[in-house]
């Protein structure tokens, strides 16, 4: 089976890292190709090997990159002629949907972000409509978090078998062993609170900065953030840190292709997201053995942490409450233990492969009847 896995670009995100691992795993039994709308990002062909890699375009095109990706992506897919396509993340669904119109290739969409977001009633309505439309016209759908599976958008499709719940996982076999390496940005006498994620409002770094300002009233700590974003948004976050009097103790460190040395050097991993599906960074923090504080709104974080058994859950919009959880994890941590074992990637990979096989078989059966 020729499988194409689509991502919008090659940024250092949890979605891209997961889809790279997926392509490499599928290459053991099938012909797998990672297809990127744009080559821009930290990863490339060497990271995807032995699976194949192709980028439809080198860099974002036009004022609306999702639309600009469509023509070159369509040409690329025509040349590849895959038997089935996996659309790896919400961000790329539109480009792939538009590029595959009339090609007759079954697409399985992965949904990893919440449909409902506070203060966005009209956009929430559009997300529900658009997501439902995608699922109905697809070869199948995968939702990565129990909170998504319970939503009104996906629950009926899960009941019918058109969609399935497959929790995120990470390949624990390939987790690098601790070798004592400490990134220069993590060195120093102050304990580090580390957060990982794109610099965008979803990740709620504003609330995390507020909570760290509260922590610093009693504990000398630093906040380090791994993730890329726009210069304007980074500047706004720096201005917020300045307003809270902690600018000298907050570092936006960019991106890395290996988060584990950073996680192991951190005293606490913090996930303050306003919404998530199922955070890969959270699973990586558990695998690294780093104490965790996650927001109540961070997707299925409460399920993953078993309501506080393997890490703390707190209200990120309450700086005092989130700071109290951070302080607890600094002084008397609740450790993740072996919880990551429940999210080992092979189980996830087999479930994804089964869904893709089902979608490809269904497409062949429909073609035979036509």
TrEMBL record:
The record's InterPro entries line, in alphabetical order, gives: Glyco_trans_4-like_N (IPR028098)
* Keyword Endoplasmic reticulum (UniProt): no
What the entry lists under Gene3D superfamilies is as follows: Glycogen Phosphorylase B
Keyword set for this entry? Glycosyltransferase, Transferase
Record domain Glycosyltransferase subfamily 4-like N-terminal: where: 13-172
- Check the record and name the CDD domains matching this protein: GT4_GT28_WabH-like (cd03811)
Annotated GO MF terms? glycosyltransferase activity
Q: What is this protein called?
A: Glycosyltransferase
Organism expressing this protein natively? Sphingomonas chungangi
